[in-house]
Write a structure and sequence with these properties.
With 170 residues, the protein is an all-alpha fold. The chain has one domain (3-163). Helix content is 68%, strand content 0%. The chain has 7 helices and no strands. It has helices spanning 3-20, 37-41, 48-66, 71-89, 104-107, 109-132, 138-163. α1 packs parallel to α3, α3 runs antiparallel to α4 (71-89) and α6 (109-132) runs antiparallel to α7 (138-163). The chain is globular and about 45 Å long. The two termini are 14 Å apart.
Length: 170
C-alpha cells in the first residue's frame, strides 16, 4: 500500500468510526472502535515515533468529533507505542520481510488474531478505565471493556477478510 493508501485509510476509518460506528450502540454499552485498525496495519518498517504520532493523531481526531477529549488519543498513543514490543513477543513462523505487512493474509490467522487481541485489549482497558476515572466498579468496567474488545476484534477481523489482500511477494 502506498503512502496515499494509508492517508485514505486514515480518513475512511475515521469517517466510518464517527459517522457509522459511533451512531450504533448495542445495548447501550457496546461501541466497537474500528479506527484502531489504522495503527494495526502500518508497515513493520514504520519508525516507532511516526507510529506513535499517527496513533495519537487518529485518537485525537476521534476525540475531536466525539467530545471526549484525550481518551482516544491516550489509548491510541499507548497501543502505537506498544505495537512493536507486542509484535516481537508474538511467536511467528513467518519472517518479517520488507514486503510483508501486519495483516491477516501476510501473517496467518493465529499470529494476526493475537496481535489484534492484545492491542485491542490494552486500548480498551485503558480507554474504559480512564473514562470511568475510578476503580470503584472494577468488574463492571472490565466487563464493558471486554465486551467491546470482543466486538471490536470481530469487526477488525471482518474488515481484514473483506478489504485486504495479501502483499505481493516480489
Amino acid at each position: 500500500m502506498s503512502k496515499y493508501g494509508y492517508v485514505l485509510s486514515f480518513i475512511l476509518l475515521l469517517l466510518f468510526q464517527i459517522i457509522i460506528v459511533n451512531s450504533v450502540s448495542l445495548w447501550g454499552i457496546i461501541t466497537p472502535m474500528v479506527y484502531i485498525l489504522f495503527i494495526l496495519i502500518l508497515p513493520f518498517q514504520t519508525p516507532r515515533w511516526l507510529v506513535v504520532l499517527l496513533g495519537f493523531l487518529m485518537g485525537f481526531s476521534v476525540d475531536m468529533f466525539t467530545g471526549v477529549l484525550g481518551l482516544h488519543a491516550i489509548a491510541s498513543g499507548l497501543i502505537a507505542f506498544l505495537r512493536m514490543p507486542i509484535i516481537n513477543v508474538i511467536p511467528s513462523k513467518v519472517t518479517f520481510e520488507e514486503h510483508l505487512r501486519p495483516i491477516l493474509w501476510d501473517m496467518h490467522f493465529k499470529w494476526y488474531f493475537q496481535y489484534v487481541l492484545y492491542l485491542t485489549l490494552i486500548h480498551h482497558i485503558v480507554y474504559y478505565f480512564l473514562e470511568a476515572m475510578s476503580f470503584d466498579n472494577f468488574l463492571l468496567v472490565l466487563g464493558i471493556a471486554l465486551l467491546n474488545v470482543a466486538f471490536t476484534v470481530l469487526l477488525l477481523m471482518l474488515f481484514q477478510v473483506i478489504f485486504f489482500k495479501a502483499s505481493k511477494r516480489y
